[in-house]
Amino acid sequence: MSDSEGVIESVLKENRKFDPPEAFAKEAHIGSFAEYQEIYSASEKDPEGFWAKIASESLHWFKPWDKTLEWEVPFAKWFVGGETNVAYNCLDRHLETSRKNKAALIWEGEPGDTRTITYFELHREVCRAANVLKQLGVTKGDRVGLYMPMIPELAIAMLACARIGATHSIIFGGFSADAVRDRMNDAEAKLIVTADGGFRRGGELALKEAVDKAVVECPTVENVLVVRRTGQEVAWTEGRDHWWHDLVAEASVDCPAESLDSEHPLFILYTSGTTGKPKGVVHSTGGYLTHATYSSKMVFDLKDTDTYWCTADIGWVTGHSYLVYGPLANGATSVMYEGVPNHPEPDRIWDIVEKYGVTILYTAPTLIRSVVKWGEEWPARHDLSSLRLLGTVGEPINPEAWMWYREKIGGNRCPIVDTWWQTE
Question: What is the pLDDT of residue 12?
Protein backbone atom coordinates (compact mmCIF):
# COMPACT_ATOMS: atom_id res chain seq x y z
CA MET A 1 0.00 0.00 0.00
CA SER A 2 1.35 3.44 -0.93
CA ASP A 3 1.57 6.31 1.57
CA SER A 4 -1.28 8.09 -0.21
CA GLU A 5 -3.50 5.03 0.08
CA GLY A 6 -2.74 4.89 3.79
CA VAL A 7 -3.81 8.51 4.22
CA ILE A 8 -7.10 7.83 2.44
CA GLU A 9 -7.71 4.74 4.55
CA SER A 10 -7.09 6.65 7.77
CA VAL A 11 -9.71 9.21 6.80
CA LEU A 12 -12.27 6.62 5.81
CA LYS A 13 -11.79 4.48 8.91
CA GLU A 14 -11.70 7.08 11.67
CA ASN A 15 -13.07 5.48 14.85
CA ARG A 16 -12.77 8.25 17.43
CA LYS A 17 -16.07 9.49 18.77
CA PHE A 18 -16.89 12.76 20.50
CA ASP A 19 -20.31 13.16 22.04
CA PRO A 20 -21.64 16.70 22.50
CA PRO A 21 -21.68 18.05 26.06
CA GLU A 22 -24.75 17.04 28.03
CA ALA A 23 -25.88 20.66 28.38
CA PHE A 24 -25.65 21.12 24.59
CA ALA A 25 -27.63 17.95 23.85
CA LYS A 26 -30.31 18.92 26.35
CA GLU A 27 -31.08 22.15 24.47
CA ALA A 28 -30.44 20.90 20.91
CA HIS A 29 -33.07 20.47 18.20
CA ILE A 30 -31.87 16.86 17.93
CA GLY A 31 -30.97 15.65 21.40
CA SER A 32 -29.48 12.27 20.59
CA PHE A 33 -28.44 9.95 17.80
CA ALA A 34 -31.52 7.84 18.51
CA GLU A 35 -33.71 10.90 17.96
CA TYR A 36 -31.91 11.61 14.69
CA GLN A 37 -32.51 8.03 13.57
CA GLU A 38 -36.23 8.43 14.29
CA ILE A 39 -36.38 11.57 12.14
CA TYR A 40 -34.42 9.94 9.34
CA SER A 41 -36.58 6.83 9.46
CA ALA A 42 -39.73 8.95 9.19
CA SER A 43 -38.33 10.70 6.12
CA GLU A 44 -37.63 7.33 4.48
CA LYS A 45 -40.98 5.75 5.28
CA ASP A 46 -43.07 8.66 4.01
CA PRO A 47 -40.93 11.24 2.18
CA GLU A 48 -43.88 13.26 0.90
CA GLY A 49 -45.60 13.38 4.27
CA PHE A 50 -42.33 14.24 5.99
CA TRP A 51 -41.45 17.17 3.73
CA ALA A 52 -45.04 18.41 3.59
CA LYS A 53 -44.97 18.70 7.38
CA ILE A 54 -41.60 20.47 7.33
CA ALA A 55 -42.71 22.93 4.63
CA SER A 56 -45.99 23.78 6.35
CA GLU A 57 -44.34 24.26 9.75
CA SER A 58 -41.22 26.09 8.55
CA LEU A 59 -42.57 28.53 5.98
CA HIS A 60 -45.43 30.90 5.32
CA TRP A 61 -47.49 29.97 2.26
CA PHE A 62 -49.83 32.39 0.52
CA LYS A 63 -51.56 29.44 -1.11
CA PRO A 64 -51.39 25.77 -0.03
CA TRP A 65 -50.10 23.21 -2.51
CA ASP A 66 -52.26 20.67 -4.32
CA LYS A 67 -49.62 17.95 -4.51
CA THR A 68 -46.47 17.56 -2.42
CA LEU A 69 -44.28 15.95 -5.08
CA GLU A 70 -44.56 15.44 -8.80
CA TRP A 71 -41.72 13.13 -9.78
CA GLU A 72 -40.91 12.47 -13.41
CA VAL A 73 -37.32 11.27 -13.69
CA PRO A 74 -35.08 13.23 -13.65
CA PHE A 75 -37.31 16.16 -12.68
CA ALA A 76 -38.96 16.73 -9.32
CA LYS A 77 -41.54 19.43 -8.62
CA TRP A 78 -42.19 20.18 -4.97
CA PHE A 79 -45.36 21.62 -3.44
CA VAL A 80 -47.12 21.80 -6.79
CA GLY A 81 -49.64 24.64 -6.96
CA GLY A 82 -48.45 26.20 -3.72
CA GLU A 83 -47.43 29.86 -3.57
CA THR A 84 -44.93 31.55 -1.27
CA ASN A 85 -42.14 34.14 -1.33
CA VAL A 86 -38.57 33.75 -0.11
CA ALA A 87 -38.11 37.38 0.93
CA TYR A 88 -41.36 37.30 2.88
CA ASN A 89 -40.18 34.23 4.78
CA CYS A 90 -36.75 35.73 5.45
CA LEU A 91 -38.02 39.17 6.49
CA ASP A 92 -41.70 40.08 6.73
CA ARG A 93 -42.84 37.32 9.04
CA HIS A 94 -40.17 38.26 11.59
CA LEU A 95 -41.54 41.80 11.84
CA GLU A 96 -44.54 40.53 13.78
CA THR A 97 -42.27 38.96 16.42
CA SER A 98 -39.62 39.98 18.95
CA ARG A 99 -37.06 39.55 16.15
CA LYS A 100 -38.20 42.79 14.47
CA ASN A 101 -35.42 44.92 15.94
CA LYS A 102 -32.72 42.28 16.40
CA ALA A 103 -29.72 42.12 14.10
CA ALA A 104 -30.31 40.25 10.86
CA LEU A 105 -26.88 40.99 9.38
CA ILE A 106 -23.64 42.01 11.04
CA TRP A 107 -21.18 43.07 8.37
CA GLU A 108 -17.52 43.99 8.54
CA GLY A 109 -15.53 45.35 5.63
CA GLU A 110 -11.88 44.48 5.17
CA PRO A 111 -10.76 48.05 6.06
CA GLY A 112 -12.64 47.72 9.37
CA ASP A 113 -15.89 49.57 8.62
CA THR A 114 -18.97 47.88 10.05
CA ARG A 115 -22.75 47.82 9.72
CA THR A 116 -25.41 46.12 11.80
CA ILE A 117 -28.77 45.83 10.06
CA THR A 118 -31.90 44.76 11.94
CA TYR A 119 -34.70 42.73 10.39
CA PHE A 120 -36.83 45.88 10.30
CA GLU A 121 -34.09 47.86 8.57
CA LEU A 122 -33.24 45.05 6.17
CA HIS A 123 -36.89 44.76 5.18
CA ARG A 124 -37.01 48.46 4.34
CA GLU A 125 -33.75 48.32 2.37
CA VAL A 126 -34.94 45.30 0.40
CA CYS A 127 -38.25 46.98 -0.42
CA ARG A 128 -36.44 50.11 -1.62
CA ALA A 129 -34.08 48.05 -3.78
CA ALA A 130 -36.98 46.02 -5.17
CA ASN A 131 -38.75 49.21 -6.19
CA VAL A 132 -35.58 50.43 -7.91
CA LEU A 133 -35.40 47.19 -9.89
CA LYS A 134 -39.02 47.69 -10.96
CA GLN A 135 -38.28 51.33 -11.83
CA LEU A 136 -35.53 50.07 -14.15
CA GLY A 137 -37.92 47.73 -15.92
CA VAL A 138 -37.28 44.45 -14.09
CA THR A 139 -40.40 42.31 -13.81
CA LYS A 140 -41.33 38.84 -12.60
CA GLY A 141 -39.35 36.21 -14.47
CA ASP A 142 -36.54 38.54 -15.59
CA ARG A 143 -32.97 37.55 -14.78
CA VAL A 144 -30.70 39.89 -12.81
CA GLY A 145 -26.94 39.44 -12.60
CA LEU A 146 -25.15 40.24 -9.34
CA TYR A 147 -21.37 40.78 -9.59
CA MET A 148 -20.40 42.30 -6.28
CA PRO A 149 -18.02 42.21 -3.33
CA MET A 150 -19.14 40.77 -0.01
CA ILE A 151 -21.13 43.80 1.11
CA PRO A 152 -24.67 44.07 2.54
CA GLU A 153 -26.01 45.32 -0.78
CA LEU A 154 -25.35 41.87 -2.25
CA ALA A 155 -27.72 40.20 0.21
CA ILE A 156 -30.16 43.09 -0.21
CA ALA A 157 -30.14 42.69 -3.99
CA MET A 158 -30.75 38.93 -3.69
CA LEU A 159 -33.75 39.46 -1.46
CA ALA A 160 -35.03 42.32 -3.62
CA CYS A 161 -35.03 40.01 -6.64
CA ALA A 162 -36.78 37.30 -4.66
CA ARG A 163 -39.38 39.80 -3.47
CA ILE A 164 -40.56 40.72 -6.97
CA GLY A 165 -40.02 37.35 -8.64
CA ALA A 166 -36.88 38.24 -10.59
CA THR A 167 -34.37 35.40 -10.82
CA HIS A 168 -30.92 36.37 -9.58
CA SER A 169 -27.67 34.95 -10.88
CA ILE A 170 -24.59 35.72 -8.81
CA ILE A 171 -21.13 35.76 -10.35
CA PHE A 172 -18.26 35.39 -7.89
CA GLY A 173 -16.47 38.73 -7.57
CA GLY A 174 -13.11 37.17 -8.40
CA PHE A 175 -14.20 36.05 -11.87
CA SER A 176 -13.12 37.79 -15.07
CA ALA A 177 -15.05 39.98 -17.48
CA ASP A 178 -15.26 37.01 -19.85
CA ALA A 179 -16.89 34.91 -17.12
CA VAL A 180 -19.40 37.69 -16.46
CA ARG A 181 -20.18 37.98 -20.18
CA ASP A 182 -20.67 34.23 -20.68
CA ARG A 183 -22.93 33.78 -17.65
CA MET A 184 -25.02 36.87 -18.32
CA ASN A 185 -25.55 35.89 -21.95
CA ASP A 186 -26.54 32.37 -20.99
CA ALA A 187 -29.01 33.71 -18.41
CA GLU A 188 -30.18 36.49 -20.75
CA ALA A 189 -29.86 38.98 -17.90
CA LYS A 190 -31.82 42.21 -18.17
CA LEU A 191 -29.86 44.12 -15.53
CA ILE A 192 -26.59 43.76 -13.65
CA VAL A 193 -25.95 45.00 -10.12
CA THR A 194 -22.27 45.61 -9.39
CA ALA A 195 -20.00 47.94 -7.40
CA ASP A 196 -17.25 50.33 -8.37
CA GLY A 197 -14.92 47.86 -6.66
CA GLY A 198 -14.21 45.93 -3.50
CA PHE A 199 -11.43 45.55 -0.95
CA ARG A 200 -9.27 42.42 -0.78
CA ARG A 201 -5.84 41.85 0.79
CA GLY A 202 -5.47 45.58 1.33
CA GLY A 203 -6.00 46.38 -2.33
CA GLU A 204 -8.96 47.25 -4.52
CA LEU A 205 -10.75 45.08 -7.06
CA ALA A 206 -12.15 46.84 -10.14
CA LEU A 207 -15.59 45.30 -10.62
CA LYS A 208 -17.32 48.02 -12.65
CA GLU A 209 -14.45 47.92 -15.14
CA ALA A 210 -15.02 44.20 -15.68
CA VAL A 211 -18.77 44.75 -16.15
CA ASP A 212 -18.11 47.50 -18.69
CA LYS A 213 -16.02 45.08 -20.74
CA ALA A 214 -18.58 42.29 -20.40
CA VAL A 215 -21.75 44.15 -21.32
CA VAL A 216 -20.35 45.29 -24.66
CA GLU A 217 -21.17 41.72 -25.72
CA CYS A 218 -24.33 41.27 -23.63
CA PRO A 219 -27.23 42.43 -25.83
CA THR A 220 -29.94 41.69 -23.25
CA VAL A 221 -28.45 43.88 -20.50
CA GLU A 222 -30.29 47.21 -20.45
CA ASN A 223 -29.14 48.73 -17.17
CA VAL A 224 -26.21 48.54 -14.75
CA LEU A 225 -26.83 49.45 -11.11
CA VAL A 226 -23.62 50.42 -9.29
CA VAL A 227 -22.93 50.45 -5.54
CA ARG A 228 -20.30 52.97 -4.48
CA ARG A 229 -17.94 50.92 -2.29
CA THR A 230 -14.30 51.96 -2.75
CA GLY A 231 -14.75 55.40 -4.29
CA GLN A 232 -12.45 54.56 -7.20
CA GLU A 233 -12.94 56.30 -10.53
CA VAL A 234 -15.17 54.42 -12.96
CA ALA A 235 -16.22 54.90 -16.56
CA TRP A 236 -19.87 55.87 -16.95
CA THR A 237 -22.42 55.26 -19.69
CA GLU A 238 -25.29 57.72 -19.34
CA GLY A 239 -28.71 56.14 -19.60
CA ARG A 240 -27.36 52.67 -18.83
CA ASP A 241 -25.44 53.15 -15.59
CA HIS A 242 -27.12 54.22 -12.34
CA TRP A 243 -25.77 54.78 -8.82
CA TRP A 244 -27.46 52.41 -6.38
CA HIS A 245 -27.45 54.85 -3.48
CA ASP A 246 -29.03 57.68 -5.47
CA LEU A 247 -31.98 55.60 -6.62
CA VAL A 248 -32.49 53.63 -3.40
CA ALA A 249 -32.56 56.81 -1.32
CA GLU A 250 -35.56 58.07 -3.29
CA ALA A 251 -37.43 54.74 -3.49
CA SER A 252 -40.51 53.83 -1.47
CA VAL A 253 -40.26 51.38 1.43
CA ASP A 254 -43.62 49.92 0.40
CA CYS A 255 -43.22 46.88 -1.85
CA PRO A 256 -45.53 43.92 -1.15
CA ALA A 257 -43.94 40.52 -1.71
CA GLU A 258 -45.14 38.74 -4.86
CA SER A 259 -47.06 35.52 -4.32
CA LEU A 260 -44.94 33.12 -6.39
CA ASP A 261 -45.48 29.57 -7.52
CA SER A 262 -43.41 27.06 -5.57
CA GLU A 263 -41.61 26.14 -8.80
CA HIS A 264 -40.80 29.75 -9.72
CA PRO A 265 -37.02 29.99 -10.33
CA LEU A 266 -35.36 31.72 -7.39
CA PHE A 267 -31.82 31.76 -8.75
CA ILE A 268 -29.45 30.45 -11.40
CA LEU A 269 -25.97 29.56 -10.19
CA TYR A 270 -23.27 28.33 -12.53
CA THR A 271 -21.08 25.34 -11.79
CA SER A 272 -17.33 25.88 -11.53
CA GLY A 273 -16.60 24.60 -15.02
CA THR A 274 -13.84 22.24 -13.89
CA THR A 275 -15.28 19.48 -16.09
CA GLY A 276 -16.21 21.64 -19.07
CA LYS A 277 -18.40 24.64 -19.77
CA PRO A 278 -20.10 26.00 -16.60
CA LYS A 279 -23.70 24.87 -16.39
CA GLY A 280 -26.51 27.04 -15.09
CA VAL A 281 -28.27 25.28 -12.22
CA VAL A 282 -31.78 26.52 -11.46
CA HIS A 283 -33.14 26.35 -7.91
CA SER A 284 -36.84 26.98 -7.44
CA THR A 285 -38.60 28.79 -4.64
CA GLY A 286 -40.52 26.38 -2.42
CA GLY A 287 -38.39 23.26 -2.46
CA TYR A 288 -35.12 25.15 -2.14
CA LEU A 289 -36.22 27.34 0.77
CA THR A 290 -37.77 24.40 2.61
CA HIS A 291 -34.48 22.53 2.52
CA ALA A 292 -32.27 25.57 3.22
CA THR A 293 -34.42 26.50 6.22
CA TYR A 294 -34.68 22.99 7.65
CA SER A 295 -31.06 21.98 7.07
CA SER A 296 -29.81 25.24 8.61
CA LYS A 297 -31.91 24.57 11.68
CA MET A 298 -31.17 20.88 12.15
CA VAL A 299 -27.59 20.50 10.87
CA PHE A 300 -26.27 23.54 12.77
CA ASP A 301 -28.77 23.42 15.63
CA LEU A 302 -29.56 26.98 14.57
CA LYS A 303 -31.76 29.12 16.83
CA ASP A 304 -32.91 32.70 16.51
CA THR A 305 -30.63 33.56 19.43
CA ASP A 306 -27.52 32.53 17.48
CA THR A 307 -24.92 34.77 15.89
CA TYR A 308 -23.91 32.57 13.01
CA TRP A 309 -20.94 33.02 10.69
CA CYS A 310 -20.60 31.13 7.44
CA THR A 311 -17.30 32.31 5.98
CA ALA A 312 -18.20 31.26 2.41
CA ASP A 313 -18.48 33.84 -0.33
CA ILE A 314 -22.10 34.39 -1.34
CA GLY A 315 -20.98 33.67 -4.90
CA TRP A 316 -21.01 29.96 -4.05
CA VAL A 317 -24.08 27.90 -3.21
CA THR A 318 -22.96 27.54 0.42
CA GLY A 319 -23.14 31.32 0.75
CA HIS A 320 -26.59 31.44 -0.86
CA SER A 321 -28.02 28.84 1.50
CA TYR A 322 -26.06 29.21 4.72
CA LEU A 323 -25.14 32.88 4.86
CA VAL A 324 -28.33 34.44 3.51
CA TYR A 325 -31.46 32.35 3.01
CA GLY A 326 -31.17 29.65 5.68
CA PRO A 327 -30.12 31.83 8.62
CA LEU A 328 -32.57 34.64 7.81
CA ALA A 329 -35.49 32.26 7.34
CA ASN A 330 -34.72 30.98 10.85
CA GLY A 331 -34.52 34.47 12.33
CA ALA A 332 -30.86 34.18 13.30
CA THR A 333 -28.14 36.84 13.07
CA SER A 334 -25.80 36.20 10.14
CA VAL A 335 -22.26 37.57 10.05
CA MET A 336 -20.79 38.70 6.72
CA TYR A 337 -17.16 39.66 6.10
CA GLU A 338 -15.75 41.29 2.97
CA GLY A 339 -12.07 40.37 2.95
CA VAL A 340 -9.55 37.63 3.56
CA PRO A 341 -9.16 35.98 7.00
CA ASN A 342 -5.53 37.00 7.52
CA HIS A 343 -5.64 40.71 6.75
CA PRO A 344 -4.10 42.69 8.26
CA GLU A 345 -3.00 39.93 10.68
CA PRO A 346 -3.59 36.16 10.85
CA ASP A 347 -6.07 36.60 13.69
CA ARG A 348 -8.68 38.59 11.74
CA ILE A 349 -11.13 35.69 11.81
CA TRP A 350 -10.75 35.24 15.58
CA ASP A 351 -11.08 38.96 16.17
CA ILE A 352 -14.46 38.86 14.40
CA VAL A 353 -15.59 35.83 16.41
CA GLU A 354 -14.73 37.58 19.67
CA LYS A 355 -16.01 41.02 18.67
CA TYR A 356 -19.49 39.85 17.69
CA GLY A 357 -19.87 36.89 20.04
CA VAL A 358 -20.18 34.38 17.20
CA THR A 359 -21.86 31.20 18.45
CA ILE A 360 -21.62 29.04 15.31
CA LEU A 361 -18.63 29.12 12.95
CA TYR A 362 -18.89 27.39 9.57
CA THR A 363 -15.77 27.37 7.41
CA ALA A 364 -13.65 25.34 4.99
CA PRO A 365 -10.94 22.77 5.77
CA THR A 366 -8.54 24.75 3.56
CA LEU A 367 -8.89 27.73 5.89
CA ILE A 368 -8.54 25.52 8.96
CA ARG A 369 -5.29 24.05 7.59
CA SER A 370 -4.06 27.59 6.91
CA VAL A 371 -4.74 28.79 10.45
CA VAL A 372 -2.95 25.70 11.77
CA LYS A 373 0.13 26.81 9.81
CA TRP A 374 -0.19 30.39 11.02
CA GLY A 375 0.09 29.13 14.58
CA GLU A 376 -2.10 28.58 17.62
CA GLU A 377 -0.87 31.80 19.22
CA TRP A 378 -3.24 33.80 16.99
CA PRO A 379 -6.54 32.29 18.19
CA ALA A 380 -5.08 32.09 21.70
CA ARG A 381 -5.09 35.90 21.81
CA HIS A 382 -8.87 35.96 21.66
CA ASP A 383 -11.82 34.92 23.80
CA LEU A 384 -13.63 32.28 21.73
CA SER A 385 -15.89 31.12 24.55
CA SER A 386 -19.02 32.34 22.73
CA LEU A 387 -18.66 29.47 20.23
CA ARG A 388 -20.98 26.52 20.80
CA LEU A 389 -20.80 24.66 17.46
CA LEU A 390 -18.30 24.41 14.61
CA GLY A 391 -18.81 23.31 11.02
CA THR A 392 -16.75 22.42 7.96
CA VAL A 393 -17.71 22.54 4.29
CA GLY A 394 -16.28 22.34 0.79
CA GLU A 395 -13.95 19.35 0.94
CA PRO A 396 -12.96 16.46 3.22
CA ILE A 397 -11.06 17.49 6.35
CA ASN A 398 -8.02 15.56 7.50
CA PRO A 399 -8.08 14.19 11.08
CA GLU A 400 -5.18 16.38 12.25
CA ALA A 401 -6.91 19.61 11.19
CA TRP A 402 -10.22 18.38 12.64
CA MET A 403 -8.66 17.70 16.04
CA TRP A 404 -6.86 21.07 16.03
CA TYR A 405 -10.13 22.81 15.18
CA ARG A 406 -11.89 21.01 18.01
CA GLU A 407 -9.16 21.68 20.58
CA LYS A 408 -7.80 25.14 19.75
CA ILE A 409 -10.98 26.77 18.48
CA GLY A 410 -13.76 24.76 20.10
CA GLY A 411 -12.05 24.28 23.45
CA ASN A 412 -12.80 20.53 23.31
CA ARG A 413 -16.47 21.33 23.97
CA CYS A 414 -17.96 22.41 20.62
CA PRO A 415 -19.50 19.69 18.43
CA ILE A 416 -18.23 19.74 14.84
CA VAL A 417 -20.56 19.06 11.92
CA ASP A 418 -18.86 18.07 8.67
CA THR A 419 -21.03 18.90 5.66
CA TRP A 420 -21.03 18.41 1.90
CA TRP A 421 -23.01 20.31 -0.72
CA GLN A 422 -22.66 21.24 -4.38
CA THR A 423 -24.28 23.68 -6.79
CA GLU A 424 -26.75 21.06 -7.98
Answer: 64
